[in-house]
Amino acid sequence: MPRKKDPWGDAVGTAPWAAVLRPAPGDLRILQALLNTADAVAGTDELGSPRALAGWLARWGLAAAEAEIGAAELERAIALRDGLRALARANVGLPLDKDAVAGLDRAAAAATFRVRFVGLATRVEPAVDGLDGAFARLVRIAARAREDGSWKRLKVCDNEACGRSFYDFSRNGSGRWCVQRCANLIKSRIYRRKNPGGRWPTLRKPRSS
Asked: pTM to 2 decimals?
């Protein structure tokens, strides 16, 4: 039986962040990609227009490519993204943006679900198709991740100049930066603030005797 193709590569395309960050496990990678549609490092926004939003949803299989999307739907998608980003920022100990979370709550209000009993399994699925169904699925992914505990590992880099979303694969879940470069920049900045005029220490090989 042929192995099912991972949609990650096709969905994220040539987004710069995708080349350096590991995808989150399961459907949580869709939310990681959503948060990273606004990339401060590259200075780009994949959701810059209704048409761009339609393309993004289609690549992830959330809505048909011909879905009709206007300014109101785009505004709702941005509110959803900003609210989820606020929650992910809180996962590294940053202050929670309550206004953004309130916007997420409003954007999620129209998400309706139905429960299906399939054999011995129970499935919670969007009750409608189209754009509302796509938003409902995104909300459901976030809710399920918060229930099973995986959400706390979806974070936003603590380097303010970066802000990319990453999944913390560390054993103890204490990661704060998306890549080592961001960690080094922040640690160097903290060191210089505590030691004005000092140099960031470097490791040196011991002299041979």
From this structure: 0.85
